TrEMBL record:
Its EC number is 1.14.13.-. It comes from Limnohabitans lacus. Residues 191-344 form the RsdA/BaiN/AoA(So)-like insert domain. This is NAD(P)/FAD-dependent oxidoreductase. It is an enzyme of class 1 (oxidoreductase).
Length: 398
């Protein structure tokens, strides 16, 4: 029998990182991935430049940037392996990087630099990687026996690092969730997160023409008790809304609930429109175009004939309604672009069945790391930091 100290299924961010650390601790490690290319999500992440961590992750309260049924679960791992720890590793490998926005760190050159680093760390730990190899079944007696395309393998420690469901065309699968169920662990329902939102039907028609327009906005969802707010950029698409603002809010959005947008967060729109009414002889549309992007101004003014006049001629009521509509635009998405466009999967293996110290599940010797667990980060490098930190916690415990 082909026997290993550790078998890790999934050669993505968490799996490769865990393998390198465990291998360098002297363990005999095998990583198996059904895709022919490893770490495909790292490759496409951050627009090809991999936003590999976030400097603003708060080590004292890391849970504020993460969503989980138990928001405190991630705290132990994230405070034991911090963004600075990963930055140190990136620097040891001589990878140039820069900070972009709100603490987000990106490679200067390419996400390939991070993949090369992960593989070099694996090589330093003598890790064996089988890519293009499917695992057909897992049984547990004294040890775990995996039936694979390359024959049976046996291990006392099986680490599941198969990630979430997003982007199935590059290898995402529900394997990790099925293994959790097979061994009696609970699952939190899954849904796409960090995903563009869509709007169907007539009501969206006036805004479809805005596809391609990007602007800074305030965005929120939820009621008074659970209100979530972000100040980020919005992007109009043919089917709805995207951009960082919408990706962030999508992880908090519940079906059939409205989102609220302030399309002019940096100006006091009611005041500026009243001023324009008192002094300007220009068409209201032209005045509005000096306060918000002109395509946006045109889309709003074209919907109401009362607004298609000089500023002085527009009735106060119509002016106030316009200001309100732009500063507190309420709309209810009809859906999302789903897993084919989502960056992450919310939900997953229930943290009640996993140790926050070691990532070992209630089934002895069976570990879960990375996105397959019910821990989802905000946009901005938080998901990779969770992958690194949970992998590191696990590798220390193996
Ligand atoms: P990951 O998905 O990385 O790896 C899972 C591995 O398991 C894959 O190699 C897969 O082939 C393999 N696998 C799946 N099923 C299997 C099976 N049945 N048998 C064998 N192997 C199997 N995050 C961030 O922090 N910064 C960023 O810039 C981005 N950008 C980004 C862009 C896009 C387009 C996406 C889709 C996602 C991001 N993310 C991100 C999110 C980030 O990529 C994600 O959270 C991590 O890759 C999760 O790491 P894991 O190792 O858990 O899964």
């Amino acid at each position: 029998m082909n026997t290993w100290d550790v078998v890790i299924v999934g050669a993505g961010a968490a799996g490769l990182f865990c393998a390198g650390v465990a291998g360098q601790r002297g363990l005999k490690v095998l990583v198996i991935d059904h895709s022919s290319k490893v770490a495909e999500k790292v490759r496409i992440s951050g627009g090809g430049r991999c936003n590999f961590t976030n400097r603003l992750l708060d080590a004292a309260a890391p849970q504020k940037h993460f969503i989980s049924q138990n928001p405190h679960f991630c705290r132990s791992a994230l405070s034991r392996y911090t963004p600075q720890d990963f930055i140190d590793l990136v620097q040891q490998h001589g990878i140039p990087f820069h900070e972009k926005h709100k603490g987000q760190l990106f490679c200067d050159n390419s996400a390939e630099d991070i993949i090369r680093m992960l593989l070099a760390e694996c090589q330093a730990g003598g890790v064996t990687i089988w890519s293009g190899c499917a695992v057909k079944s897992v049984v547990h007696t004294d040890a775990y026996t995996l039936e694979t395309d390359q024959g049976p393998v046996q291990t006392p420690s099986l680490v599941v690092a198969t990630g979430g469901l997003s982007i199935p065309k590059i290898g995402a699968s529900d394997w990790g969730y099925r293994i959790a169920e097979q061994f009696g662990l609970r699952l939190v329902p899954r849904r796409p997160g960090l995903v563009p939102l869509t709007f169907d039907g007539e009501a969206w028609a006036p805004y479809a023409q805005l596809a391609g327009l990007a602007l800074p906005v305030g965005i929120e969802t939820g009621d008074k008790k659970n209100r979530m707010h972000f100040d980020e950029d919005l992007l109009f698409t043919h089917r709805g809304l995207s951009g960082p603002a919408v990706l962030q809010i999508s992880s908090y959005w519940a079906d059939n609930c409205p989102i609220r947008l302030n399309l002019a967060p940096d100006v006091n729109l009611p005041e500026r429109l009243q001023e324009a009414k008192l002094r300007s002889k220009k068409l209201l549309g032209n005045e509005l175009a000096s306060l918000v992007p002109s395509r946006l101004a045109e889309a709003w003014v074209s919907q109401d004939t009362a607004l298609q006049r000089t500023s002085a001629e527009v009735p106060d009521k119509a002016l106030n309604k316009l200001a309100q509509a732009l500063c507190n635009w309420q709309l209810t998405p009809t859906g999302s672009e789903g897993y084919k466009k989502a960056e992450v999967t919310l939900g997953g293996v229930d943290t009640r069945d996993v140790s926050s110290q070691t990532m070992e599940s209630k089934h002895p010797g069976l570990y879960f790391i990375g996105e397959v667990i019910d821990v989802t980060g905000w946009l901005g490098g938080y998901n990779f930091q969770w992958a690194w930190a949970s992998a590191h916690a696990c590798a220390q415990a193996l």
